[in-house]
Amino acid sequence: MSSASPSALPPGRLFIDGQWVDSVSGARFATINPATEEPLAQVAEGRAEDIDRAVGAARRAFTSGDWPRLSPADRGRMLWRIGDLIESHLPEIARIECLDSGKTITEATRVDLPMAADCFRYYAGWATKIEGETIPVRAPCLGYTLREPLGVVGQIIPWNFPLLLAAWKVAPALAAGNTVVLKPAEQTPLSALRLADLAREAGLPPGVLNVVPGFGPTAGAALVDHPGVDKIAFTGSTAVGQEIMRRAAGSLKRLTLELGGKSPNIVFADADLDAAMRGALNGIFFNKGEVCTAGSRLFLEAGLHDAFLDRLRQQAERLTQGDPLDPKTRLGPQVSEAHMRRILSFIETGKSEGATLVTGGERPDGRGWFVRPTIFGAVSPAMTIAREEIFGPVLSVIPFKDLDDVLPAANDTRYGLAAAIWTRDVKKAHQVARALQAGTVWINTYGQYDSAMPFGGFRMSGFGRELGRHGLMEYTQTKSVWVDLS
């Protein structure tokens, strides 16, 4: 595994009020390369005092800096410029992302970073299209509404798509005129720091985007608790989302929460089986299974179950695992040792509860936090591996008899983030899509996203939406204005 020179990495400091600064405490932490298990960079550790500085800078930028005086068109031009800068620095940022998170260079260069650039450009176009309404009222008055920004937004980003999910949050917040305090995951802070540099280069005024790396119980909790923060946008586990809701209750902050998932991927016997095979593999092994929408429950109709499962095993065993910077690598390492051990623990639970280990199920020899692509057969919906979000390359295969059998089983989960259906029967596809309790349903495809298409969950997968017009509106509030005309 090749290493990056220090000059190739962004400054390991906090970005507050347009400047690189040290933390108040002077504390630092190491971000680790998951493929080599070696320190990659030392990063300043933000704590409550640093969050307070960042919120203060964001508040000044929102109320009295250059930001509120900019026209929407000027905001849009800056966002478009950020998208251009991501694209022009794509090889460099992709390398940072791979070294820090373990994702493959192919996924970073072909998926994550192009989508991040597109997201900034998409919301650049929205900046000039946030409009109110004129409403006929009974009184002799002119009634109209204004769509206004919320103010200071705290955004907490997970480690599985560090830059892409930062873009999903930062771009609409800025397009609507808010200012941002961004806390990246402590495992993967480097691309968010590079984004701060690009935003400054694009002309973003000081204080509009602040980036404070740190840990959840200190920096994250301080951001949620801070009375100067008007909204929290969080992507992460359901357990942490619940804690954020409890903490935010005191100040009644607005929240959008994109949380866990245990997505059903349903293959009917009348499906295009080649396409369904690709969808099953991509659904669970993309980004080494560290995907909130991972198709971790694969439902196979009885008539195709055995042959499909055997072919799936063969395909999984051919996947190349290794150096994330090698373009031939399909699966990189898990993000951290702790997460790798959590995945391995779930695999042991699957064995002990009676599931059949079809392939994988172990850590390969050598350095790096790798887990072999793993498939379990003979899984019942009551088993732990079919109910808990593993967030790794572990697939539970569940047989079903017919439509009446699979729908209750697919919906038998506390989550509701995504689902997929594979069938040539158009009527059945739409019937199942309506019946599935999930925020996103894919038909004859898996893992499609677009900046224009809203994304979010049902039930314990969270609430609120990201992307599209819906995602933009989450960063605005409505004001009603009455003008007496009598």
Given the C-alpha coordinates, what overall shape results?
A: globular
N-to-C CA distance? 76 Å
Supply the CATH class of the largest domain. Alpha Beta
* Structural domain count: 2
Low-confidence stretches: 1-7
So how many helices?
Answer: 15
Mean pLDDT: 96
Percent in helix:
25-40%
CATH topology of the largest domain: Aldehyde Dehydrogenase, Chain A, domain 1
Work out the radius of gyration. 23 Å
| Number of beta-strand segments | 20
Assembly form of the protein:
single chain
Structural class: alpha/beta
Proportion of residues in extended strands: 15-25%
Please list the strands of the largest sheet in the order they lie side by side.
Answer: 14-15-16-13-12-17-18
The CATH superfamily name of the largest domain is: Aldehyde Dehydrogenase, Chain A, domain 1
| CATH 2nd-level architecture of the largest domain | 3-Layer(aba) Sandwich
**Biggest sheet, open or closed, and with what strands and sense?**
7 strands, mixed
Topology:
Layout lengths: L13 E3 L2 E3 L6 E6 L4 E7 L3 H16 L8 H17 L1 H12 L3 H22 L7 E2 L5 E9 L2 E5 L5 H14 L3 E5 L6 H12 L7 E3 L4 H10 L5 E5 L2 H11 L5 E5 L5 E4 L5 H13 L11 E5 L3 H14 L18 H16 L3 E4 L14 E4 L6 H4 L6 E7 L2 H8 L7 E5 L3 H10 L4 E4 L18 E2 L4 H6 L2 E9 L2
Helix pairs in contact: 1-7, 2-4, 2-6, 3-4, 4-5, 9-10
Give a quick set of tags describing it:
486 residues; alpha/beta; Aldehyde Dehydrogenase, Chain A, domain 1; Aldehyde Dehydrogenase, Chain A, domain 2; 2 domains; six-stranded mixed beta sheet; 20 strands; 20% strand; globular; disordered N terminus
